[in-house]
Amino acid sequence: MLASGLLGSAAPVLADQPAKQIFGAAKLPAILPPSPIGFYSKGCLAGGIAIPNDGATWQAMRPSRNRRWGHPDLVALVERLSREAAAQDGWPGLLIGDISQPRGGPMLSGHASHQVGLDADVWLTPMPNRTLSAQERESLSATSMLKPNTLYVDDRVWTAAHARLLMRAASYPEVERIFIHPGIKKKLCDTWQGDRSAMGKLRPYYGHHYHFHIRIKCPPGANNCRSQSPPAQSSGCDKSLAWWFTDEPWAPAKPKKNDKPAPKKREIQLSDLPAACAAVASAPGPATEAQVTFGTADPIGRIAGANAASAVTASASAPMPVPGRIPVPKPRPSN
Ligand SMILES: [Zn+2]
């Protein structure tokens, strides 16, 4: 039990703690109805589930990061992509990179986004036809699709199956964007012969030549989820892509005149995130990871039901190691 004396003093301290420390410490998700809260780059995740480390058509990489968690719709989509790509695209299986932390939120390393359980990284390296060891999953490097020191795809590593995998991922209606290196976008623009109606969802961006990044829309009814405006209807195989092959995007930022040293960037605090994220941070978790892993029907609902039936289950569950429960502030009117 939490000592009630902690509440008054601990809550403000927690609210002033960098959010990445709080969310980076969560080992298990918040047992709340599944809900992405806030925006892809500023929010958290209630009711996340894990994709298993292994499936018939995927293996999760970098297990020590504990970022296999997502909104159930995203986890289901990644599983579906893995299965359909294996069956129809000649892509043997997905190596899955980061999704989100168990409760989403900012991370101690990497990624500005991936905070609400609607973003997933998938390697551009096909899954090998054997189960990788835990050690290999930590140390194996992904394959860049680019010719060294260029912005262009290396045809010795790029295959037609890569193109089919990417176009399939973009084709799903719930997928709003796929982030991919401009060189890869160019390759698809130049060579894809099939249906091009989803081409515009493939968004050229820095990085993303070792992996691609799937972003799904706010699920229907997710009222706390802040949506992003959809990409333009056009294919994007146009001036906006050509711009990436100029110097402008790659030029180092020019120092301004009278440049003072940049003020130290203030860390995002829990209180900077949507108000509901405080409840996500302090909500109880499940007793075990298995209870909230993809493959169990309605995992959150089952646990919530069990918790309601038995107060013992609730107290035995493992909330995040936070010093106290946080009173939930009223949502701001703008939310
Ligand atoms: Zn990503």
Automatic annotation (TrEMBL):
Q: Which UniProt keywords apply?
A: Hydrolase, Metal-binding, Metalloprotease, Periplasm, Protease, Signal, Zinc
Protein name, please? Answer: Penicillin-insensitive murein endopeptidase
Q: Which InterPro entries match?
A: Peptidase_M74, Zn_M74/Hedgehog-like
A GO molecular-function descriptor: hydrolase activity
**Organism from which the protein derives:** Hoeflea ulvae
Locate the compositionally biased regions of type Pro residues: 320-335
Q: What is its EC number?
A: 3.4.-.-
Residue ranges, annotated region (Disordered) = 311-335
Cited Pfam families: Peptidase_M74
